[in-house]
């Protein structure tokens, strides 16, 4: 992972789609290994933090601006995709594509 990152950042390498997917999968593996235990252990705290953050942002934003967050539904979906170390980057890409299409309607 470090080698590809350094080539991209320091040498201007444009990674192939295959390199990007392998890198993304490696990142997802690490994130799932770290985040799922945190979500399991601190679910209520995470919920409170999201609510407090949204309230603070609402107080500071211009009245016409809309705010959003990944929120708990995203985290729960994230947790489900990470169960049993069976997470696949392709699953996330399909979800992202569905979300993108739903936003265009």
Describe this structure in words.
It is built from four helices and no strands. The chain is extended and about 40 Å long. The chain has helices spanning 2-11, 17-60, 71-82, 89-104. The protein is mainly alpha-helical. The protein has one domain. The model has no long low-confidence stretch (mean pLDDT 79). It starts with a helix and ends with a helix.
Topology readout:
Elements: H1 2-11, H2 17-60, H3 71-82, H4 89-104
Helix pairs in contact: 2-3
Provide a compact summary of the structure.
The protein is mainly alpha-helical and 105 residues long. It has four helices and no strands.
Could you name the key traits of this structure?
single chain, 105 residues, mainly alpha
Summed over residues and divided by their number, the pLDDT gives a mean of: 79
Distance between the termini: 37 Å
Radius of gyration: 17 Å
Largest sheet: none
How many separate helices?
A: 4
**Topology order in helix (H) and strand (E) letters:** HHHH
> In terms of per-residue confidence, which ranges show pLDDT below 50 for 5 or more consecutive residues?
none
């Amino acid at each position: 992972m470090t080698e590809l990152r350094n080539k991209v950042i320091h040498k201007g390498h444009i990674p192939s789609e295959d390199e990007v997917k392998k890198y993304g999968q490696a990142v997802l593996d690490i994130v799932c290994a770290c985040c799922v235990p945190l979500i399991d252990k601190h679910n209520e705290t995470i919920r409170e933090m999201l609510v407090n953050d949204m309230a603070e942002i609402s107080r500071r934003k211009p009245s016409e601006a809309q705010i959003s967050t990944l929120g708990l539904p995203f985290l729960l979906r994230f947790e489900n995709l990470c169960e049993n170390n069976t997470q696949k980057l392709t699953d996330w890409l399909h979800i992202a594509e569905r979300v993108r299409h739903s936003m265009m309607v």
